[in-house]
């Protein structure tokens, strides 16, 4: 997907650009293409961005460590403010206070909007934090004969310490 130059968006019909999405997103490992629709509308001092898209990803179960496929859907709308930000020298090791207003996503009015990066971020937010192949997943199954109560593990490096322990008792 190509970047959208924000001033050109003003000249588009109804100041809106509709994008049909059928692509693989960089850095997002999916089995299928990301498919759906995206709309970017210029509303004066902000962009209204909305998307409906889906794909299938291979995830790893947190309990049993088996891989499974999951459909990930994005149905989201976001407002992105257009404002010129003051050029500040940002030093990495300096602690600074950030106002609540600065926590809002913003772009330069003469800049570009990158739909693929925005869509990538939305998919990352939709990936489940707790990845389970099924609700009744039992986890990694072990045989009863290998349970620690029935058959304690023997480590020959501790044999002399075990013998010393037996002498003390």
Automatic annotation (TrEMBL):
Q: What is this protein called?
A: DUF177 domain-containing protein
């Amino acid at each position: 997907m190509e970047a959208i130059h924000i001033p050109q968006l003003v000249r588009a019909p109804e100041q809106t650009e509709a994008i049909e999405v059928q692509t693989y997103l960089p850095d997002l490992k999916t089995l299928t293409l990301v498919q759906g629709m995206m709309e970017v509308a210029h509303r004066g001092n902000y962009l209204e961005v909305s998307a409906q898209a889906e794909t299938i990803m291979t995830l790893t179960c947190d309990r049993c460590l088996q891989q499974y496929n999951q459909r990930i859907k994005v149905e989201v709308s976001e407002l992105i403010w257009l404002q010129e930000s003051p050029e500040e020298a940002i030093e990495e090791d300096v602690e600074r206070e950030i106002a609540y207003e600065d926590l809002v996503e913003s772009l330069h009015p003469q800049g570009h909007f990158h739909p693929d990066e925005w869509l990538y971020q939305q998919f990352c937010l939709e990936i489940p934090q707790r990845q389970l192949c099924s609700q009744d997943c039992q986890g990694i199954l072990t045989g009863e004969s290998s349970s620690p109560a029935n058959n304690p593990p023997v480590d020959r490096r501790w044999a002399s310490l075990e013998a010393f322990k037996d002498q003390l008792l």
